[in-house]
Amino acid sequence: MASDRIISPPSGYEGYLSRRAAAALLGFSSEFKIRQLEKAGRLRAIRGVMGSAWYPRSQVLALRDAAEVGGTAPIQGRWSDAALIAHLRARTRSVVDLVADTGISISRAERVYRFWLAHDVHPMASEARAIRTRTTAAERRSPDRIERDDLIRQLRDPDPDARAAAFEKLKPKREPTSSA
Description:
Blueprint lengths: L15 E3 H8 L5 H8 L6 E2 L5 E4 H11 L13 H10 L4 H8 L3 H14 L3 H15 L5 H12 L5 H11 L10
Antiparallel strand pairs: 1-3, 2-3
């Protein structure tokens, strides 16, 4: 077939990749994503015979390296859980960093982050667990606030006597409302 033919780059541009080769190098199944990257200004092509697009190999590799961590993250589209964990392994990050870097939802970032902390034996996960332990161990609430929160939690107790006792302890702590 004519479409399966390998075309050669223009003379002087032997180190350049065709649109199809760039798509294959970036792991895309279609050349359409390469066109999108070109329109977005992330790839700059030179034009060859019949307007064919050719991309510098170094530019395509730099784009792959910038977008991929561990060779698993997509340049566009949905991030797999494996890609997110590879992204976390690159350096210690927080949930906020994960959301900002990847554009995934906060709830998904929290789930992946919790999974990563609980299951990964990678040194970065150990470091993140240590940081998280240090920050959550220090209680910032006042003792009065902690006591009040415990009483409110007891209001949900299945035992009616425990709920009544908690309610009685909370009554004096309520500030009277003024009717003006």
